[in-house]
Structures are given as C-alpha cells and as structure tokens.
C-alpha cells in the first residue's frame, strides 16, 4: 500500500501513465498483479519472483507519486491468482475505498483478517 501524492488535477493522467508502464514492464520481468485506489491510497497485489517483485517495490518506493510505501504481506504462492493480468486496475470506487480505509483507518495497526479481505477484493475484481 502507499499514499498517493499526485496533485488531484493530474491524477487521471498519472494513473493512466502508471498502468501503461505496468502493462509494458511487468510482462518483461514475469510480474502479474492488481492495483486499486481510493482517494489518497493505492493498494496492490504483486506476483512474481522475489527478485522481480523486490526490484519493482524499490522503484515504487523511489517514485514521488507514492509515499508511505508499506508492504503488508509477503508469502510464497504455488499458483498465480492474477496470472492473466500484467496489472489489473479497478480505479476508484466506494467498495475499494471502504476496504482500504478499513486497513489503514487507524495507522498501520493492520491485522491478518483485514489484509485477507483486501487481498481477496483485488483477486475478485480481477476475476470478474
């Protein structure tokens, strides 16, 4: 997860640029994923090799469009849940906003159930 630092006037164009870059870059390094946003927050689920995901996360952490980049969970998966997506993107909608608010509502006091719910939401929207 990360906090959006993009000027609201430029958000749509910047979000489009982020998604376009993910669609071009992620397949070249074997990353699949899903990205959702709600007002001032991004949440994403990334799948791929440890090296590829670590490199991407380092790039995201340096990207001035993000702040407070926080990894909520790292775990091995035997199968990809977002294998058909270089980066599925849900845009901003109330359901997303509520789930992100539930996870980040009171700082970083997150629990596994809330992370599971956010994780499931990203997989479900990508599967719809």
Q: Report the structural category.
A: alpha+beta
Would you identify the regions where 5 or more consecutive residues have pLDDT less than 50?
none
**What fold name stands as the CATH topology?**
Alpha-Beta Plaits
What would CATH call the architecture? 2-Layer Sandwich
C-alpha end-to-end distance: 22 Å
The major beta sheet can be summarized as: 5 strands, mixed
Radius of gyration over all CA atoms, rounded? 14 Å
Structure, explained:
With 128 residues, the protein is of the alpha+beta class. 46% of the residues lie in helices and 19% in strands. The protein has a single domain, classed as Alpha-Beta Plaits. The protein has helices at residues 11-29, 50-62, 94-104, 112-127, and strands at residues 2-4, 32-38, 41-47, 66-67, 88-92. A five-stranded mixed beta sheet has the order 4-1-3-2-5, with helices on both faces. The mean pLDDT is 85.
How is this structure best summarized?
The chain has four helices and five strands.
Task: Give the SSE layout.
Layout: E1 2-4, H1 11-29, E2 32-38, E3 41-47, H2 50-62, E4 66-67, E5 88-92, H3 94-104, H4 112-127
Parallel strand pairs: 2-5
Antiparallel strand pairs: 1-3, 1-4, 2-3
Helix pairs in contact: 3-4
